[in-house]
Specification:
This protein is an alpha+beta fold. The chain folds into three domains: about 100 residues, RRM (RNA recognition motif) domain (Alpha-Beta Plaits, 2-Layer Sandwich), CATH 3.30.70.330; about 100 residues; about 40 residues. The protein is built from eight helices and 14 strands. The strands form four sheets. Strands 4-5-3-7-6 form a five-stranded antiparallel β-sheet. It has a five-stranded antiparallel β-sheet with strand order 9-10-8-12-11, with helices on both faces. A two-stranded antiparallel ribbon has the order 1-2. A hairpin with a 2-residue loop joins strand 11 and strand 12. Helix 7 packs antiparallel against helix 8. The longest helix is centred in the last third of the chain and has 31 residues. The protein is extended and about 140 Å long. InterPro entries: At4g02000-like (IPR040256). Keywords: Signal.
């Protein structure tokens, strides 16, 4: 664009050149966006009464990487505790986690929440706490997992302290300890005694373990041209029931299978009986009563026969019992 010509010299100082690049307008930005273009959307495939859509695998994998800094948590309220909102939970945790910055919480429903942290170090600090006392409930954090559904969630992970027994000192660096502990679960942290090497009987590591999987007690550590077994001990192994997929009890303690409460029926369901069924039921009832009366009479005959007063005869009593049976 050429420089404008001003005939009045006193206005020449007010003339400025127009900027060459003004940037994109909102309409241009929306038009250029790949996410907003209809031709970029996946095709819709209809099969029967369902519609199938294939999402972008690249975008999905990028989100999976971002979620590695997330944790899932569940708030359990005791009887009588007031309900807890997301804002109330945030305010309580700010006082409990004062050293953390720029973390977020998202409600998922049914008492579940998802926490997002800025660094892996912050995430592991919170994860190592396991349970947090909120004074109006308990927050239990566990490892983030994909395809998380609060409606079908069953807790099978637990944090356990393990001991790597008789491990040589050259394998006591944190990186090496985490590599060895990964054979049993996901390592979280090591205690101060292990970090400072106060004693070398065993290395103590906090590991997140899937209790529904096989719990191994030995791992073979491989080096360049050398391998040796390491024995591991669980400090406190939690009970896990394979039937209910729940932590904390065995099959002998399952209230679902060993319930002693009587069954409660919704209501009486009348049934229309035929005349033959009614007559058959009456005959069976009369037969049952007559058998009981006969047994009673025989026992009374034996009692009065062996009595010290033989002059009392049971015949009148027998007649009375049979007379009582006639109305039935």
């Amino acid at each position: 664009m050429s420089t404008p010509i001003c005939t009045w010299s006193f206005l020449s100082s007010l003339v400025t050149a127009l900027p060459e690049n003004l940037g994109k307008s909102f309409a241009q930005a929306v038009t250029a966006s790949d996410e907003a273009q209809p031709n970029r959307l996946p095709p819709r495939i209809r099969m029967g009464d369902k519609v199938y859509i294939k999402i972008s695998q690249k975008v999905y994998e990028a989100e999976i990487v971002d979620c590695q800094l997330h944790l899932h948590g569940r708030v359990t309220l005791q009887k009588g505790d007031p309900s807890l909102t997301t804002r109330g939970l945030k305010q309580k945790l700010v006082g409990i986690w004062p050293q953390l910055r720029n973390w977020f919480v998202t409600p998922l429903g049914r008492g579940f929440f998802e926490f997002k942290f800025q660094s892996m170090e912050d995430m592991k600090k919170v994860w190592a706490m396991n349970s947090v006392n909120l004074k109006s409930g308990i927050l239990k954090n566990f490892y983030w997992s994909k395809d998380f559904d609060p409606l079908t969630q069953t807790q099978s992970h637990a944090q356990l302290w393990i001991r790597l027994m008789h491990l040589p000192q050259e394998y006591w660096r944190q990186t090496t300890l985490f590599d060895i502990a990964s054979g049993f679960g996901t390592p979280i942290s090591i205690n101060k005694a292990t970090q400072s090497r106060l004693f070398g009987h065993y290395a103590r590591i906090l590991v997140d373990v899937d209790m529904s999987d096989t719990l191994f007690e030995t791992v073979v550590v491989e080096c360049e041209g050398y391998a040796f077994p390491v024995i591991m001990e669980y400090k406190r192994k939690l009970a896990f029931y394979q039937h209910c997929k729940l932590l904390g009890h065995y099959i002998q303690q399952c209230h679902r299978l060993n319930s002693t409460q009587p069954q409660v029926y919704s209501g009486y369901q009348p049934k229309n009986f035929t005349k033959q069924e009614v007559q058959k039921s009456k005959d069976a009832s009369v037969l049952l009563v007559s058998q009981k009366v006969t047994t009673m009479i025989e026992s009374l005959q034996f009692k009065y026969t062996t009595s010290i007063r033989p002059r009392i005869k049971p015949q009148p009593l027998i007649v009375l019992l049979w007379v009582w049976l006639i109305p039935i």
